[in-house]
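User: Teach me something about this protein's shape.
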Amino acid sequence: MALGGGHGLAASLRSARCYAGEIVGIVSVADDGGSSGRLRRELGVPAPGDLRRCLSALAGDNSLLARSLEHSFDRGSLEGHPIGNLLIAGLTSACGDFETAVREVARLVGAEGVIYPATREAVTLLADSGEGRLCGQVTIERGSNIRNVRFDPANPKSPDAAIQAIIDADQVVIGPGSLYTSVLAAAVVPAIRVALLHTRAQRVFVANIANDRGHALGFDRPEHVETLRQHGIVMDAVVALPGTFRVEEVDAHVVVADVAHSDRYQHDPNKLGVALDALLSH
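Assistant: First, the predicted structure itself:
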């Protein structure tokens, strides 16, 4: 299973399709920018954007609906909204339950796995910084010296099935993705953080290829692992590109592998899948 948010979690889920017998994704719904932010403000639904990306990553290959999830309108009042976001928001409005809406979209697109939101309600990401208290994912992305990531409300509920999936998993993949607004935005949800401490699963952090902008600009990869530890998230293993980690820099098993796409900016799902499968079999 994998948890996080943004494009990074979608990459991990694509990798899981290469080797995992069962796939579960747990996705942050704290986004307050772009289409997701607009739908949150106008309809009061949790942010659907990262869930949409993950459903696309797991969707069947022969579905027109699956291929259309990422299509965005380019004019009119719907400009900037991907079809997948509107579908999730519309089903939530129709049936009154966000988790049910996500399950239905997964069924419609033939998703190869199960996707859960990290929280059952819309949440606002909070953090402290050198500039003081920061409120909202977009604001945190622009901040610096970030610490103490948390939520409003302070103790949002997670789906019971998502927590059980962490406990039962053989491997939990965290990352890649923006450190504070994708990775920690899912991992520090209170019930998820407790489940990560108690699971017998192998906990693997996939380090970013391109370093974070803004809020984690200048961080070396070991600083990402240390920041996770400071937030109560302990890793058993780390997957990183050659030259980004020395074994002695972190208290975890470090797997050095060229898991980058040819553009050297994002992960190659097949290469990452091979590295994660080898770790699981180790």
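Now, about its shape. The domain at 1-27+158-282 is CATH 3.40.50.10680 (Rossmann fold). Strands lie at 2-4, 24-27, 114-117, 124-129, 132-135, 147-152, 171-174, 202-206, 237-240, 253-256. If you'd like, I can walk through any region in more detail.
User: That's plenty for now, thanks!
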